[in-house]
Specification:
The complex is a heterotrimer of chains A (about 350), B (about 350) and C (about 400). With about 350 residues, chain A is an alpha/beta fold. Chain A is built from 14 helices and 14 strands. In chain A, the strands form five sheets. In chain A, strands 10-9-11-8-12 form a five-stranded mixed beta sheet, sandwiched between helices. With about 350 residues, chain B is an all-alpha fold. Chain B has a domain of about 230 residues: MetI-like (MetI-like fold, Orthogonal Bundle). The two termini of chain B are about 15 Å apart. Chain C has about 400 residues and is α+β, with helices and mostly antiparallel strands. Among the domains of chain C are: about 40 residues; about 190 residues, MetI-like fold (Orthogonal Bundle), CATH 1.10.3720.10. In chain C, the strands form three sheets. Chain C has a four-stranded antiparallel beta sheet with strand order 1-2-3-8. Classes of the chains: A alpha/beta (about 350), B mainly alpha (about 350), C alpha+beta (about 400). The interface between B and C is large, with 56 and 56 residues.
Chain lengths: ~350, ~350, ~400
């Protein structure tokens, strides 16, 4: 029954393609194609994830994901318009249709998935909330933070996690919640609070901005699960599929050893998995409303997941965050993409 | 009073006499002088030390500033392009330059005394200029499209301020007339509109624009556009009250005279009442513009990069983040805003004098 | 000449007026209806809840300054209350401070001391022409950088401490029997007011001057003192003390509050100073000369002759400055002071996503404050207009 339905869907897609309206299935994709560019909501400035340079060029993990999408759709990773969004307005911006996809280190929670009407497509980065403290406080564990003042930003899950953690451990605390990252860091730097809490990746990024980064340590406790991933609006299943499989394609590419450098060579690979991923066999690209070689374009212009990770947050970046939970499942991490089959 | 009857000039007092008379006329006065000197010493000296003596003047990154206790001027110098143009494409910045130069020239024309043709130039600045500037900045008609997400810095501040001014004048005039109308419905709507926006802080209006406008409009609203709408509605309400003040100051005889001539309402307003009322309200209108210009900095709260927002964002860039970077940026932004607002307030004061002279005649 | 030409009905003024108004109503109704439908459609599509039920949901986050009991298990409705109170307290303190600074600077501008007059003028010109948001950032980070950390606090004995976590003051703790003291105090204040009114009536009728200050002070202090002695002083103080990272106990004024109050007060004071100056300059010169002729000193002239008359001109614009200060306190959101906009239109909005309800409530709160103040102003204006002699 199910396979019958799938075959029907594929058939329908092919029909549509033949009619010259392959994208009719997804209103969002149709709109993106009509605009000629993808609109992508990103962080206002979080090194490693999304930062504009002096010329307004955006770089980062979240940014590269949008570029991968643009590469898949337009064969041009530059056809993206980035909208910097604050933690507070990000969902409204997506819901109002001001962006087509929200790639803004956003935690996938049940509430957001079910109640706010978003659809998370997967986990781009496994993160968790941690604490940074000045070394001179001689604190080595978050359990020693009772009575501390903690700086964080508003409108995020961090405020709620913080409250839960301190309550669960019967510790007292004071929270000072700012609107922007810039203000949180400035206040922490000025000694307004004893600890700075946000996602561990964010802490590594913010630490670099301090006068002497080595005077501050990130405590070992991770107090929350923060699976960060791109989100789209509910109601356009095909668009969600496209975004989801763009991410999985990047992870699968890494797993199968397809990189930006060898992708042309890999087209001739005998491995059926590689051949299906790169569109040599099957018609998965068409089913998404794209062309066969969509993954080739992604990997060639943006890279696979590992390349993107290293370049933006990993060993090739100033942040030098270890792969940790974000290693492939074969290497002891959590990154696991369903197969292309 | 003719100059020849001016009383003979008193001899210039010597410096000592002057000091005694103006600063040390009594013990209490002397104490005040000492207090004033102390305040000056405690504010000016640390500031000068920070801004000049201890400041870093040359450098290419944060390491050059970390060595100094004072201001980090290289940050402002190296980032000046971004501070002025935001993320506007470097190759297209000439378009912003043209828009700003025309604006400056137009304003100079309108404010300098004894330059002819103020009315046509003013009309052009309020109608043609905004449209032309929009196409110049956003693109279209052969020019490359530059999305509003790339707008920022000083340019963004000027765009928001100018939009507020251009939109608030006609809207404000209509609302002011509406509030003085005999028609109860028109009057009621005008009062409700004016009091609603005047009764709430601009921050909530901006939040409303950012969060609710997209829901109401049912389409994707550009973030810059929603901020512009918010600022325009907000400043129109304030402008309405200023214009109403001008209307109220017109002697009743003028209204009666216009009626007696048999002029219909709109003609009476356009040719007799409004020219006088706007002239009377001019100092307050300029005062309103000063407030509007200062308020543009609030758009950084909803994540737009105006002059203040871009300096703040730039100061946390790892390339420049240092303990004094942000404060240096604030001082720089402060100087820019202050220069603009102060000159506008001087102009308003000057116009007050001109108007008062006209009254005396 | 006066042959009346019958005007067709559609050109009659009455008809035209009615038509204009009907059109306006229709246009507004259509716009509102369109917006409403769009919003309803978008909300339905995004599965966002609507209605005010969220006010009873648990908030789950903490707030650093609460004037009413609040913890993580309180509701969003409670968050709203906390936000309103925090806004009001910052506005109240700011207004008092702005008035004091504003009057000092305003009078200073007219000082015969050259340096003071210039200094006051410079104050007005500098502060009035800078964006308030910039000044708030400046004060906040200047205050934070100037103050020491909690472990090297500046202390005044063992009772008052100042550091970058706040100003710690002894907090009064009431014990049983304090109600009687409060009652005695209230009675004393009522008595003092009655005495002041009586003294003024007496002076107006007979010209006899009765000392008011001393008698009022005695009436306020003595009964309260006696009652508290009888109740063996039912008021103790909780002193702040360093415990771990921060001071515990006592009453704390947050640095965010300090910066916000200072920025709001100094900024608004620059406007108040101009109002005060204009008010004083508006008092006829003959008044000063008459006071001089009576042999009043400069201070006396100012206090007894000029200011009471200038106040008539000063108070209406002063109230609108107070209103501005209250509205401007919403900039607290930029420096993490938990005011109404920050905790309600900020955190609560992003936790619940119910933008329309939350923005509407927030605006309604400010609008209520504004309308109440305007109503008071209208009453006050009518009042002074009546008693003008």
């Amino acid at each position: 029954m199910r396979s019958g339905l799938a075959r029907f869907a594929a058939f329908a897609a092919i029909l549509c393609f033949a009619a010259g309206a392959a994208d009719a299935a997804s209103p969002t994709l149709a709109k993106v194609k009509k605009n000629g560019y993808l609109r992508c909501g990103v962080n206002e400035g979080l090194p490693g994830f999304a930062t504009p340079d002096a010329k307004g060029n955006w770089t980062g993990l979240d940014v590269d994901f949008c570029r991968a999408l643009a590469a898949a759709i337009f064969n041009d990773p530059k056809k993206v318009r980035f909208t910097p969004t604050s933690a507070k307005v990000r969902f409204t911006v997506l819901q109002a249709g001001e962006v087509d996809v929200l790639s803004r280190n956003t935690t996938w929670t049940m509430g957001r998935d079910v109640q706010i009407g978003l659809e998370f497509v997967g986990v781009m980065y496994y993160d968790g909330q941690g604490f940074m403290v000045p070394k001179k406080l001689n604190v080595t564990s978050a359990k020693q933070l009772s009575g501390a003042s903690v700086c964080t930003n508003t409108g995020t899950t961090t405020e709620l996690n913080l409250a839960d953690y301190f309550r669960a451990n019967k510790m007292k605390y004071k929270v000072i919640a700012f609107e922007k990252n810039a203000e949180v860091l400035a206040a922490y730097d000025a000694g307004r609070c004893d600890a700075y809490t946000t996602d561990a990746s964010g802490l590594s990024a913010e630490r670099l901005k301090l006068k002497n980064p080595n005077d501050h340590i990130i405590l070992p406790e991770i107090i929350s699960k923060e699976p960060l991933g791109p989100a789209v609006n509910q109601g356009d299943q095909q668009w969600g599929d496209l975004v989801r499989w763009t991410m999985y394609a990047m992870i699968n590419a890494e797993e199968l050893g397809v990189t930006s450098k060898n992708v042309d060579k890999m087209l001739k690979s005998p491995s059926p998995e590689v051949r299906r991923l790169l569109g040599v066999e099957g018609s998965f690209g068409e089913s998404l409303g794209l062309t066969k070689d969509w993954v080739v374009r992604i990997v060639k212009t943006v890279g696979n997941y590992g390349e993107v990770f290293d370049r933006n947050v990993g060993k090739g970046s100033p942040l030098k965050i270890p792969r940790g939970m974000n290693a492939l499942w074969k290497k002891g991490g959590l990154q696991y993409a369903p197969p292309v089959r | 009073m003719t100059p020849s009857r001016r009383p003979p000039r008193e001899p210039m007092p010597g410096p000592i006499e002057w000091l005694r008379e103006n600063l040390f006329s009594s013990w209490g006065n002397a104490a005040l002088t000492v207090l004033a000197l102390a305040i000056i010493y405690w504010t000016v000296v640390p500031f000068v030390t920070w801004a000049i003596v201890d400041a870093a003047w040359t450098g290419t990154g944060r390491d050059d500033c970390l060595a100094y206790d004072g201001a980090c001027w290289p940050f402002v110098m190296q980032r000046i392009g971004q501070i002025v143009y935001g993320f506007y494409d470097v190759g297209q910045r000439w378009r912003v330059d043209i828009a700003l130069i025309v604006l400056a020239a137009g304003l100079a024309w309108l404010t300098l005394p004894r330059v002819p043709g103020k009315r046509p130039v003013g009309a052009l600045m309020l109608t043609l200029y905004p449209v032309a500037a929009f196409f110049l900045l956003a693109g279209g008609m052969g020019l490359e499209h530059v999305p509003t997400t790339r707008w920022g810095g000083f340019m963004m501040t000027m765009i928001v301020a100018m939009t507020g001014i251009v939109a608030s004048l006609p809207l404000g005039i209509l609302l002011a007339l509406g509030r003085r109308s005999d028609l109860p419905v028109v009057k009621g709507f005008s009062i409700a509109f004016i009091e609603l926006w005047r009764g709430v802080p601009l921050v909530t209006v901006l939040f409303m624009a950012a969060n609710m406008l997209p829901l109401f409009a049912g389409l994707s609203v550009n973030k810059v556009l929603s901020a512009l709408i918010a600022v325009a509605l907000f400043s129109a309400a304030y402008m309405a009250e200023v214009v109403r003040g001008g209307l109220a100051a017109i002697p009743k005889g003028q209204y009666e005279a216009a009626n007696a001539m048999g002029l219909p309402y709109w003609q009476a307003m356009a040719f007799i009442i409004l020219p006088q009322a706007l002239r009377l309200a001019l100092p307050n209108i300029v005062g309103n513009f000063i407030g509007l210009l200062k308020d543009t900095s609030l758009i950084s709260i909803i994540g737009l990069f105006d002059l203040l927002g871009i300096v703040q964002a730039g100061s946390t860039d790892p390339e420049w983040a240092a303990p004094n970077t942000a404060m240096t940026g604030y001082v720089f932004v402060g100087v820019v805003f202050w220069a603009m607002c102060f000159s506008m307030s001087r102009y308003a004061k000057h116009m007050e004098g001109v108007l008062a002279a006209g009254e005396r005649r | 000449m006066t042959t009346s030409v019958s005007i067709p009905w559609w050109r009659k003024r009455r008809t035209r007026d009615l038509a204009i108004q009907a059109l306006l109503i229709a246009a507004v109704a259509i716009v509102v209806a369109l917006m409403w439908m769009n919003a309803a459609e978008t909300l339905r599509r995004q599965h966002i809840a609507s209605g005010f039920g969220f006010l009873n949901d648990t908030a789950g986050f903490d707030i650093i300054q609460t004037l009413v009991p609040y913890d993580e298990s309180s509701t969003y409705g409670r968050v709203l209350l906390v936000g309103i109170l925090n806004t009001l307290v910052v506005a109240a303190v700011g207004i008092v401070l702005a008035t004091i600074i504003g009057f000092l600077v305003g009078i200073g501008q007219l000082s015969s001391n050259w340096l003071i007059a210039r200094l006051a003028r410079a104050y007005v010109e500098v502060l009035r022409n800078l964006p308030l948001l910039l000044q708030i950032f400046f004060w906040y980070f200047a205050v934070l950088r100037a103050l020491p950390g909690p472990r090297d606090s500046w202390g005044l004995g063992e009772t008052v401490f100042l550091n970058n976590r706040g100003l710690y003051l002894p907090a009064p703790v009431t014990e049983s029997g304090f109600g009687w003291v409060a009652l005695a105090l209230a009675a004393g204040i009522a008595g003092a007011i009655w005495w002041t009114i009586r003294a003024r009536r007496l002076r107006e009728r007979t010209g006899q001057v009765v000392s008011v200050a001393r008698m009022s002070a005695a009436m306020i202090v003595l009964p309260a003192l006696i009652v508290s002695a009888l109740a063996s002083f039912p008021l103790t103080f909780s002193l702040p003390a360093l415990a771990g990272f921060n001071f515990e106990g006592g009453f704390v004024v947050l640095p965010e509050m300090m910066a916000l109050v200072v920025a709001l007060a100094t900024y608004t004071a620059s406007y108040i100073a101009e109002i005060v100056r204009a008010g004083i300059e508006g008092v006829a010169k003959g008044q000063t000369e008459a006071a001089n002729a009576l042999g009043l000193s400069r201070g006396q002239t100012l206090r007894l002759v000029i200011i009471p008359q200038a106040l008539r001109q000063i108070i209406p614009p002063l109230t609108s400055q107070y209103l501005n200060l209250t509205k401007n306190s919403s900039l607290a959101v930029a420096i993490a002071y938990p005011d109404l906009v920050s905790v309600f239109a900020g955190t609560t909005l992003s936790q619940t996503g119910q933008a329309i309800e939350i923005i509407a409530i927030t605006m309604a709160v400010y609008l209520t404050i504004s309308l109440l103040t305007s109503a008071f102003m209208n009453w006050y204006n009518a009042h002074i207009a009546l008693t003008e002699r």
